[in-house]
């Protein structure tokens, strides 16, 4: 292995990449001090070039008369297939698999045929229809690889099987660094999570590397690995089409993708909190409720139509008079923190709950005014005292709030009222 900080250092080591993407490097030598981070390590494993990014030692022993030196390093990202530097913009596209993408596309590749006496049972496997979308110069394209039917014969039975795998190809407007497509992948995983109603993550990622001087048809395929918040389980049975909140049946792929990516960027903070609750739900209901209340305020603020209480110039003059009347700096500090020219938290919740289709909202939250009062009380108590002893069931209040956030995001995607109502019924049924 070669460390970028010590390019002449070459040591033997063992690289381990776990199913969840976590990468560990164990070396029989010394690459880093415990407080150091190595920007890049180049090596070779099983005859393939390997690039490791942001490695740091978590355990070291030996050396200085203490026997053979040994280090174990945690690695943030692992790329198998090429050597490159972190800042090199040599990747032209990525091929990814996402959980729940097949059902989201709503284009079944395997169809069961009619039962005919002369033919018996039949099924057809075909490629998914080619879907394409573009957003700010980024291109997104779906391609699939169907497999031939296979027949397996045992002593007791014969089994016929096949499969079809849809891949999403992501092409940036210009070459990017190795981690340049990470945000797009994360945001598309969030879309699968919102649509399916269950955490959806990255199954596989392969980057396409093209350097200057390479022939047009030449390319290098690089497999990318890294520890993620949600670990994909590709062999798990996914939700059926009827369990999805929305699919490409409800809005075209070429419309949903750019609309979602724009929405995800605009409401970045709210979405980070909201999807964090989906991928890694805190164990305490109080924590989940406070985070969902925070996401609600952030989402409303992003698209708020609420006006300030008074014109800015008039407010500043009033604020200055009040501050001047204070007797000391302690009072002025307190007043500065309290006097605001904007909507209250209660105002924002009232605006938010009126945003989605109201028939859908009524399925999730039957009494909007009561929900506003309950969440204001609970949020203030948890934020200021860490304890809530109100009469409202916190678990139900959290589910209502998360359900409303789901409907608001769907509304911002311009999904039809009947689609929101169907999703609301699913939220209520499978809460």
Quickly list its features.
alpha+beta, 17 strands, two-stranded antiparallel ribbon, 431 residues, 35% helix, globular
Task: Please tell me about this protein's structure.
- By secondary structure, the chain is an alpha+beta fold.
- The protein has helices at 101-105, 182-196, 253-266, 268-279, 285-302, 312-324, 329-338, 345-353, 358-364, 368-384, 394-412, 417-429, and strands spanning 2-3, 6-10, 13-17, 23-27, 37-45, 48-61, 70-80, 91-98, 110-112, 123-125, 131-135, 138-146, 150-153, 158-161, 164-171, 202-209, 220-226.
- The strands form three sheets. Strands 1, 2, 3, 4, 5, 6, 7, 8, 11, 12, 15, 16 and 17 form a 13-stranded antiparallel sheet that branches.
- α6 (312-324) runs antiparallel to α7 (329-338) and α9 (358-364) packs parallel to α12 (417-429).
- The protein is globular, with a radius of gyration of 27 Å.
Give a short synopsis of this structure.
The protein is α+β, with helices and mostly antiparallel strands and 431 residues long. The chain has twelve helices and 17 strands. Strand 6 and strand 7 form a beta hairpin.
What is the CA-atom radius of gyration, in angstroms?
27 Å
**How many runs of DSSP E, i.e. beta strands?**
17
Topology as a string of helices (H) and strands (E)? EEEEEEEEHEEEEEEEHEEHHHHHHHHHH
Envelope shape = globular
Mean pLDDT score: 89
Tell me the structural class. Answer: alpha+beta
Q: How would a crystallographer describe the biggest sheet?
A: 13 strands, antiparallel
Binned, the helix content reads 25-40%
Indicate the proportion of strand residues: 25-35%
What separation lies between the terminal Cα atoms? 50 Å
| Poorly predicted runs of 5 or more residues | 1-6
Number of helices: 12
């Amino acid at each position: 292995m070669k460390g970028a900080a010590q390019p002449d250092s070459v040591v033997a080591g063992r690289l381990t990449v776990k199913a969840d993407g976590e990468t560990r490097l164990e070396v029989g030598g010394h690459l880093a001090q415990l407080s150091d981070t190595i920007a890049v390590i180049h090596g070779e494993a099983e005859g393939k070039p390997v690039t490791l990014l942001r490695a740091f030692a978590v355990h070291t022993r030996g050396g200085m008369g203490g026997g053979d030196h040994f280090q174990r390093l945690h690695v943030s990202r692992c790329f198998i297939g090429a050597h490159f530097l972190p800042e090199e913009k040599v990747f032209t596209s990525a091929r990814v698999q996402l959980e729940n993408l097949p059902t989201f596309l709503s284009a079944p590749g395997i169809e069961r045929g009619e039962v005919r006496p002369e033919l018996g049972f039949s099924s057809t496997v075909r490629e998914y229809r080619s879907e394409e979308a573009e957003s700010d110069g980024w291109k997104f394209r779906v391609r699939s690889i169907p497999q031939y039917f296979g027949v397996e014969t045992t002593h007791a039975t014969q089994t016929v099987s096949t499969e079809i795998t849809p891949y999403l190809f992501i092409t940036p407007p210009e070459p990017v660094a190795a981690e340049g497509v990470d945000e797009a992948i994360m945001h598309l995983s969030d879309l699968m999570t919102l649509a399916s109603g269950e955490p959806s993550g990255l199954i596989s990622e392969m980057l396409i590397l093209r350097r200057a001087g390479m022939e047009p048809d030449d390319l290098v395929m690089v497999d990318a690995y890294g520890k993620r918040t949600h670990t994909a389980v590709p062999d798990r049975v996914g939700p059926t089409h009827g369990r999805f909140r929305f699919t490409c049946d409800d809005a075209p792929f070429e419309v949903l993708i750019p609309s979602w990516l724009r929405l995800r960027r605009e409401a970045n903070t709210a979405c980070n909190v909201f999807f964090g609750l989906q991928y890694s739900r805190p164990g305490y209901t109080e924590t989940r409720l406070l985070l969902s209340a925070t996401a609600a305020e952030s989402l409303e603020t992003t698209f708020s139509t609420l006006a300030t209480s008074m014109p800015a110039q008039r407010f500043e003059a009033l604020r200055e008079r009040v501050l001047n009347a204070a007797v000391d700096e302690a009072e002025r500090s307190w007043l500065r923190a309290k006097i605001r020219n904007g909507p209250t938290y209660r105002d924002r919740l009232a605006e938010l709950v009126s945003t989605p289709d109201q028939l859908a909202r009524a399925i999730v939250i039957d009494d909007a005014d009561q929900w506003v009062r309950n969440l204001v009380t609970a949020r203030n108590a948890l934020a200021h005292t860490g304890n809530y002893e109100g009469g409202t069931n916190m678990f139900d209040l959290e589910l209502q709030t998360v359900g409303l956030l789901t409907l608001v995001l769907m509304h911002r995607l311009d999904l039809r009222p009947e689609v929101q109502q169907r999703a609301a019924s699913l939220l209520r049924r499978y809460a």
